[in-house]
Amino acid sequence: MKEATTGTVSGCLVWIITFGIISMCILPVSTAVGGVTSVTDFAVEQTGAIICPDNSTPKIRSFATYGSGPSTTSVLECMDESGNVVKEDPVSFAFLWIGILAIIGLLIGAGLAFALAAPAGVLIGRFINRMSKT
Question: For the chain, what is the domain count?
Answer without folding.
Answer: 1
